[in-house]
């Protein structure tokens, strides 16, 4: 019979075991081996059944076993040691506390998804895993972050396969009381909540759940509460589900409700108020509107509040194509910020202007969340060097008149949280080599450019470790494959062949990720016969483990999954290639360490970063990848292979796939397999082991989330906090008024005449040329602007390709026509075709970049006639 209602009955822990509850509720256990070992020893059988989730474990252990443990002195000593270690971890000084003054008192980090652990399934892919690793690394470093997200009652989805290989989605209901969460409560014990006003007098209420991620609280908003009508209860039903208005309400709750949740949490706990707000992608962009409204209630007008909010906001974009950005109908947004809805103190026209696509090709009827995110943040970044360049080009239209490389979007290359993703066997080997504390510091704090101690590990130990990890993966794959075939309807009698799937001595390739078309799941199938020959080669075979989920609404992605599954079902090759459904963190933690090669073949440059290869590298797995994302930045032949790309404008998609698939096959046939199976001293693959060693030595320190978070602190959070502190209300008004005055006067700014002392069209390296520039500033003064000379090499179209800038200085007073004379040298610091131009930019001490206002004036054609523009 089916229960009519479900609720959770919690065990009453004996007094000596009470610390177990605190340990289970702090998600540090998900990356702390000693804590997991302690919980496993409570009841190994139930630990396995609970899939390594301490909260579920404690709900299953019998009272008799708990009473037994309460009398077990050895267990209690271990419990005390682990509890004390957590207390020291949470309260002691760490890297952040040793950096001196100037850092923000707190940072609020907003993301639509967080991948902390499989026990809290609130993620769909790389964005969420990155956000989870960001919080964990911040905790390890002692950085005072507050994470903010939504609690999805159905998570993303669970994936199974039909008999013919079609993806099927399942949405199990998640009970927050069975998750490692606690409900935030007011002082009187009632649940804390936030509310948003909706059109028509309705309201959206949400309770606040807290997941403790080491030192970092993660606030998750849950709309499935009795105070809501049925439609509003379903706002946080599933990740990236529903139609346009559903998504808009999710993003309003995340941004506006998230700020209110942060204020509530700080009021109730005494946590420092954030000085910096970091939005991970545009989904949380509405947080800036809530903060403008807060400042409005304190007496600041919209423009001054906007400057204050911008100063303390960091925006990270992960999207390399416009199609990946959330865009809403302007009328829909206007309705939700109208007179009877949310943030009534703000002029809806100003709200809509923030998301308007004002650049060429933009659609006037749409509200763009990334555009709003950039306009509400003084600091923005992409997630790899290549992605930073792509982002500057993609959003250059928001800064007309500037070259793409001057667009104020920098980059911080992603990293991964090593303690989460490195196999315990790899950690133990590192601890033996370095010592436990040094190994822990190397993986969390980072800071070293090389891990030279890896060079001292004997070849034999590295190779034995790699085989052990491969063997564990083989057993894991067989178990998951058997479960998948049972779900597809196969009987046990049909599945005897699974005992021979994969071989622990065969070169193993991994490919696992989401399945949008640009990641090209099926590129390996471009020539099925050639792939079959690779899989079945008599001397140098390969085996491939594939996993990935297509979005529920993406039938094209599901067809790719089905094509791969059907190939892997072929009895000729099914012992050499497998597809594992329901890819998630639990599977990934087994998959990365067990592979020898991590394959990545997206369409360049559509992979913003691609961190799965980083996780594999930390386990001694070599990367075989297109030069995209982080691999474009850090690839060296010493530790991996680059798949050549055919990304010329004249190459169509079909031909490009053919060319790049052929290059992949050639690398595998001619170089990768030969290196793996080649034997040297002591019958070991010496050159392969050296590549593993170089991967760990050179890549290891770079791919750490600790390195990433330290970069965010030093390059973005600290400057944002300082800028925020500099904008007291009067200063914010001054800056807003200055910008308004400059914008109004800018049409009167001009470069009227440019002269040079260059006598000929050639000059010697190291010499200089004098410049005299006459400019009109209209109602502005030299204090409001900077006149620059921009110079560098020029291409065949006379475009300056590697520009450098130097300011020119005003000389004397304006002439009778009100024009100003500027003078200065032009240094000829590069050989070859050389050119220059001059320009005028707004200048103010509180601007974060010269391009911030988007205003620039260059010479007219008449002004450059006598300027001697090119030196050849």
UniProtKB/TrEMBL annotation:
Keywords: Allosteric enzyme, Carbohydrate metabolism, Glycosyltransferase, Pyridoxal phosphate, Transferase. GO terms for molecular function: glycogen phosphorylase activity; pyridoxal phosphate binding. It catalyses: [(1->4)-alpha-D-glucosyl](n) + phosphate = [(1->4)-alpha-D-glucosyl](n-1) + alpha-D-glucose 1-phosphate. The keyword Transferase applies. The modification N6-(pyridoxal phosphate)lysine is found at residue 615. One of its GO terms (biological process) is carbohydrate metabolic process. The keyword Zinc-finger does not apply. Its cofactor is pyridoxal 5'-phosphate. Its EC number is 2.4.1.1. InterPro entries: Agluc_phsphrylas, Glyco_trans_35, Glycogen/Maltodextrin_Phosph, Glycogen_phosphorylase_DUF3417, Pyridoxal_P_attach_site. It holds the Pfam family Phosphorylase. Residues 13-120 form the DUF3417 domain. Phosphorylase is an important allosteric enzyme in carbohydrate metabolism. Enzymes from different sources differ in their regulatory mechanisms and in their natural substrates. However, all known phosphorylases share catalytic and structural properties. NCBIfam families: more_P_ylases. Belongs to the glycogen phosphorylase family. This is glycogen phosphorylase.
């Amino acid at each position: 019979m089916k229960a009519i209602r479900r609720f959770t009955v919690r065990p009453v822990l004996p007094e000596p075991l009470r610390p177990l509850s605190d340990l289970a509720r702090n998600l540090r256990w998900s990356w702390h081996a000693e804590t997991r070992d302690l919980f496993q020893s409570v009841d190994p059988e139930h630990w396995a059944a609970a899939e390594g989730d301490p909260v579920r474990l404690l709900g299953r252990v019998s009272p008799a076993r708990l009473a037994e443990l309460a009398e077990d002195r050895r267990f209690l000593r271990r419990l005390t040691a682990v509890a004390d270690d957590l207390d020291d971890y949470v309260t002691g000084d760490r890297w952040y506390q040793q950096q001196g003054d100037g850092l923000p008192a707190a940072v609020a980090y907003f993301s639509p998804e967080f991948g902390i652990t499989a026990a809290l399934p609130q993620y769909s892919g790389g964005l969420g895993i990155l956000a989870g690793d960001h919080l964990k690394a911040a905790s390890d470093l002692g950085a005072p972050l507050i994470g903010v997200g939504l609690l999805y009652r159905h998570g993303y989805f669970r994936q199974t396969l039909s008999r013919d290989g079609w993806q099927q989605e399942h949405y199990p209901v998640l009970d927050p009381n069975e998750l490692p969460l606690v409900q935030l409560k007011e002082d009187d014990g009632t649940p804390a909540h936030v509310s948003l006003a909706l059109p028509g007098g309705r309201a959206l209420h949400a309770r606040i759940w807290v997941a403790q991620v080491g030192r970092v609280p993660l606030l998750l908003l849950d709309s499935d509460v009795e105070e809501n009508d049925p439609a509003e209860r379903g706002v946080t039903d599933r990740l990236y589900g529903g139609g346009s208005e559903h998504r808009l309400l999710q993003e309003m709750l995340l941004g506006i409700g998230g700020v209110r949740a942060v204020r509530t949490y700080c009021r109730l706990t005494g946590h420092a108020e954030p000085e910096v707000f970091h939005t991970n992608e545009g989904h949380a962009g509405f947080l800036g509107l809530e903060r403008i409204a807060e400042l409005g209630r304190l007496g600041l007008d919209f423009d001054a509040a906007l400057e204050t909010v911008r100063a303390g906001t960091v925006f990270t974009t992960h999207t390399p194509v416009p199609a990946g950005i959330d865009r809403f109908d302007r009328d829909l947004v206007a309705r939700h910020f109208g007179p009877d809805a949310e943030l009534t103190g703000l002029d809806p026209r100003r709200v809509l202007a923030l998301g308007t696509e004002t650049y060429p090709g933009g659609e006037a009827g749409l509200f763009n969340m990334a555009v709003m995110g950039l306009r509400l943040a003084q600091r923005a970044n992409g997630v790899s060097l290549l992605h930073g360049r792509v982002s500057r080009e993609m959003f250059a239209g928001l800064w007309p008149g500037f070259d793409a490389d001057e667009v104020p979007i920098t980059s911080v290359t992603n990293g991964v949280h090593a303690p989460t993703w490195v196999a315990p066997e790899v950690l133990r080997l590192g601890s033996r080599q370095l010592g436990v504390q040094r190994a822990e510091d190397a993986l969390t704090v980072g800071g070293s450019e090389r891990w030279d101690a890896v060079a001292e590990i004997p070849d034999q130990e590295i190779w034995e470790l790699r085989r052990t990890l491969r063997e564990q993966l083989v057993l894991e794959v067989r178990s998951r494959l058997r479960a998948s075939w049972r779900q597809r309807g196969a009987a046990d009698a049909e599945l005897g062949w699974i005992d021979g799937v994969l071989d622990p001595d065969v070169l193993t390739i991994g490919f696992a990720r989401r399945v949008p078309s640009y990641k090209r799941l099926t590129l390996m199938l471009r020539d099925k016969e050639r792939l079959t020959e690779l899989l079945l080669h008599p001397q140098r075979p390969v085996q491939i483990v594939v996993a990935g989920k297509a979005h529920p609404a993406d039938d094209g992605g599901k067809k790719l999954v089905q094509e791969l599954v059907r190939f892997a079902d072929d009895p000729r090759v099914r012992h050499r290639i497998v597809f594992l459904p329901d890819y998630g963190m639990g599977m990934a933690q087994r998959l990365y360490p067990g592979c020898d090669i991590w394959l990545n073949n997206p369409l360049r440059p559509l992979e913003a970063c691609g961190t799965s290869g980083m996780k594999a590298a930390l386990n001694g797995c070599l990367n075989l990848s297109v030069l995209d994302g982080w691999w474009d930045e850090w690839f060296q032949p010493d530790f991996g292979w680059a798949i050549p790309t055919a990304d010329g404008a004249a190459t169509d998609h079909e031909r490009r796939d053919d060319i790049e698939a052929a290059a992949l096959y050639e690398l595998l046939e001619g170089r990768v397999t030969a290196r793996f199976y080649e034997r040297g001293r002591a019958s070991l693959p010496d050159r392969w082991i050296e590549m593993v060693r170089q991967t760990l030595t050179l890549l290891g320190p770079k791919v750490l989330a600790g390195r990433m978070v330290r970069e965010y602190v030093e390059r973005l959070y600290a400057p944002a906090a300082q800028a925020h502190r500099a904008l007291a209300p009067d200063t914010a008004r001054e800056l807003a008024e200055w910008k308004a005055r400059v914008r109004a006067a800018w049409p009167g700014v001009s470069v009227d005449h440019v002269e040079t002392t260059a006598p000929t069209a050639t000059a010697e390296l190291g010499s200089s040329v004098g410049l005299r520039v006459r400019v009109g500033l209209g109602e502005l003064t030299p204090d409001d602007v900077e006149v620059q000379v921009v110079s560098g090499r020029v291409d065949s179209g006379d475009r300056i390709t590697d520009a450098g800038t130097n300011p020119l200085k005003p000389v004397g007073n304006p002439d009778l026509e009100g024009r100003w004379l500027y003078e200065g040298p032009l240094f000829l610091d590069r050989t070859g075709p050389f050119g220059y131009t001059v320009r005028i930019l707004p200048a103010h001490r509180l601007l974060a970049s010269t391009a911030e206002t988007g205003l620039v004036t260059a010479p007219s054609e008449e002004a450059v006639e006598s300027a001697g523009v090119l030196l050849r």
